[in-house]
Structure prediction request, 435 residues.
Amino acid sequence: MTPSPELRTLPRLLAPILGVLLVSCASYPERTAVAMGAFREGHLEKALEEFRDADTVGSRFLAGAESGTVALVAGRWEEALADFERAAAVSRALEDRTLADPASLGETLLTWTLNDAQRTYRGEGFERVYLHCGMALSYLALGKLDDVYVEARRANRLLEAEEVLYEKKYEAGGFGHLISALAYELLGEYGDAYIDYQRMVEKGVGVEVAGPALVRLAERLGRSQDFERYGREYGEETPSPDAARVVVLAGIGLGPEKVEGKLVLPTEDGVLSFSGVSYLDFPQSVSGLRVRVGEATSTTSVVEDVSKVARENLEDRQLWAFARTVVRGIAKRKLTQRLEKKYGDTGRLVGDLFSILSERADLRCWRTLPNTWQATWLFVEPGIHAYSLEALGGQSQDLGSFELEPGETLIILARTVEGRLYAHVLGGRPIGATP
Prediction:
């Protein structure tokens, strides 16, 4: 019996269905499961190896961002910077257009594709902001303070562009301003540092850190009215001019991840398939860090809530995402109608399968970002002190003894992943260390 023309064309019609299924069968969480598992379990070398494989990760931006974060946690500053720069190269043209004209980002968000996961991933708006914060931290660890300022400033300008586009103010930017202010203080440019701290207070982010800093710098800069005003709000006690300072900058926990939501609506003319994403938060075992220097202690406070910023940024993009999925759904239904007209029920079946299988939500996101950025500092007498750091709800570390000169700053870069604590000391003179 000779098969009908419709049946003879069935293999050819099914080919794109199988192609779509093979290309999109593995979501980003599935592609990076091994890398993320190694990161969670403390196998940083394995995590670096996996995340640096852009073919496995499926995104050059995320390969650089994820591996840069792991290298930063491991204290491999040059590698972290190189990884972050690879990610930045992917998004640089988009960033430049966004800074010149924030409305151009909206045009990019409306770009049509077969499904969102097929788009070249250049990072969500808030991820591009944090990418430059990561670069700023790398430069800080390398002692390149002028470059710290450049990256922190770019991070804050990108955030402001997002706010212009979405006509809202995020409770964000605290970490970028804090890194910038710290770099200015280390360079002795206290007036510029003062401006960054003021912006933190104005935005309501990291006020526990920025408020007392304004009191201290207002006194140093001779701004008596500001000193009185901020002193009433944050206390008038300031350190002695000879005091040394210990600063903790920390990423705490793991940020949220994207999960897919899908809706399939049967119609007389073919199915309409829609997809969308939301963020899933993880339980956080560590709430913050406590640093101990001799007998003095201080606990970190939240400077920026990454999870909150991610959810708000996603909500602001939902209109563009919905527009894309509606356009795709209508276009695919029209394709189904043409197939049905030409090939009958076989064409209808193929068109419906194509619409359902090809509509996939984009679950790509920067998985190694922390849940919050936190910070604290305390002023101590110059000299030799023993240092330790405790993750509240996790591990503790004795960092050793260090000698600080009058007015010197020692920085501790830290990160918690699950209950694990990673800490790196910058500055000071180690006591008892092997030459």
Remarks:
- DSSP finds 17 helices and twelve strands in the chain.
